[in-house]
Amino acid sequence: MPAIDTATETLVTTGNQAHSHGPGSPVPLQARSERVTSYDVADFAVPNGREEEWRFTPIKALKGLFADEAGTETVKVEAHGPDGVVVESVAADAVKAGKPQDRIAAVSWNHAPETLAVRIPADAELTEPVHVNVASLGARGYTHLIVDAGRHSRSTVVIDHTGAGELASNVEIVVGDGAQLRVVTIQQGDHESIHVAQHDALVGRDAKLNHVAVTLGGKVVRVSTNIRYAGPGGDAELLGVYFAESGQHHEHRLFVDHEAIKCKSNVLYKGALAGDKARSVWIGDVLIRAAAEGTDTFELNRNLVLTDGARADSVPNLEIETGEIEGAGHASATGRFDDEQLFYLQARGIPEDEARRLVVSGFFNDIIGKIGVPEVAEHLHEVIEQKLARTAALTQATKV
């Protein structure tokens, strides 16, 4: 297997200033705590692609979403769940789990036609997931969703994004003290669709959040997930699965802001790429502030490149302001098929195409098993099988 790099883009900020990437770097690399957050669109310039937070993103494709103007369609959003769950329209500032961290998030916050809140009552224990279906109808639209899990509740919310066109969405998540919440966000828009999302989560005292990002479709998908803690003992597990095909750009950015004491975070993202100009980007930022004693954190990203012409960028970052922690680490690895695994399977009579399918399935199996929603896991297996079939056909065609 490829060697694991545990030192890529590491920042240890105690006593140091923000630094650049070297001679000729156009913009200094800022600590995450220094970046602008605002509800005012004017506080964010239209990016030119040289900024640290935009340098991997195909910004030309997002031109329409940078414009500070109303959308050209109303996105269809429907939510339903077990008895006791409240679904209602609320004021945009009804919950403030976090501020917009880029221009598109600010535009979406200001121009979403309504804010839909899904509220799980305190002490509720839901045996079935709450489903939120977001259908983009083919033009440009914005959505704002609030998920509010009451104290000591137990629940799962599945947010399914489908359709075409351009979509900018904000999701604010509040996990009450002692609550356990699982949020699964699925991006499976049409092949030419564009989706840019910001998820902000505030994890309460002794609360647990499982956030799962599944990206299966879309020409350009960029999901930024930000985690903060409202009290000690908070625990956040961030999981992600993505599979980019020819011409698709799938980008996931994470920021875990440890400020409260004795909190945990664990990040595990896995992706596969197949086809010419298939592209994935994973940025994992973890900030451990000076007051966050007792923090325990780890982040891991792994990518499997299945064909020539595909590219994966993986950048784990750590900013540590105190040495009084339980543990902190990160790793990333990008590589092709493990030839030894393929040889082992083929030596036992398994055809090459089937052997490759088994290797890829095995690569994803551990993380799929952690998703915790059987219907999502089953759907993900089916889509991966379809993508692998297309990859096999593509590989065979290049051999002819």
TrEMBL record:
Spans annotated as Disordered: 1-30
SUF system FeS cluster assembly SufBD core domain location: 142-363
Pfam families: SUFBD_core
Domain of life: Bacteria
PANTHER family: PROTEIN ABCI7, CHLOROPLASTIC
Family the entry assigns: Belongs to the iron-sulfur cluster assembly SufBD family.
The name this protein goes by in its record: Fe-S cluster assembly protein SufD
Gene expressing this chain: sufD
